[in-house]
Amino acid sequence: MNEMNETYRERLLERTRTYAQEEMGRDSSGHDWQHTARVARTARLLAEREQADAFLCELAALVHDIADEKLNPSKEAGLDKVNTWLIENGAAEPDRLHVMDIIANMSYNGGHGGQLSTLEGRIVQDADRLDALGAVGIARTFAYSGWKGQLIFDPDLRPRDSMSQEQYRKQPSTAINHFYEKLLKLKTKMNTTAARELAEERHRYMEAFLAQFYRELGVENDWGT
Ligand code: ADP
Ligand code: NI
């Protein structure tokens, strides 16, 4: 890679870090700047292990939650904002289009999202999913739950997956139920080998956490973990 290219990449990453920090700094729904910084770091690590473009992975990771529906009037408005920012800050067109494709398509979407079309996209998605697992994932789940007004745990509220669609919509979830509805399933949804390896340890840690949680409560866990 030539020197000009290297300077362009470094400058754009530096500006994007500042932009993401400004945009994400005050969020308390689990999408704060520290989440973005962790995803960017993990994306770089995975890119090195999977021989992908580390610059693109980090760039997409830095902006991946700026367009989140929860933080914008709509998903489209959020995506427009990021797209405009990239144009105004000198992102090369192929880089901008690649990043926009990644962030528009990487969301969990109830586990039904399709496979992302590039290795870089699959890596950023893995990095984001890894941040929902392990000790960090547990912390984010309780933070998000509090933000949303959900209970920690209610023995009468079963994980919503075991219900009909109608019951599902009516019943609120809890932080503990979120493990069954999403977190414990993520291990099998990793795209890359490098991410699967990292997910394994984090998954076991969550299982141990749940076992200890039920032990302290003196309740039977019959939800099949
Ligand atoms: P991201 O877009 O970064 O993947 P999400 O917006 O899906 O994250 O969720 C942010 C964090 O809150 C994640 O750690 C996720 O597991 C957690 N979370 C999402 N939905 C719920 C929920 N209904 N109850 C508890 N935690 C949740
Ligand atoms: Ni995220």
TrEMBL record:
It holds the Pfam family HD. InterPro entries: HD/PDEase_dom (IPR003607), HD_domain (IPR006674). Residues 32-133 form the HD domain. SMART domains: HDc. Transmembrane segments: none annotated. Signal peptide: none annotated. This is HD domain-containing protein. It comes from Paenibacillus validus.
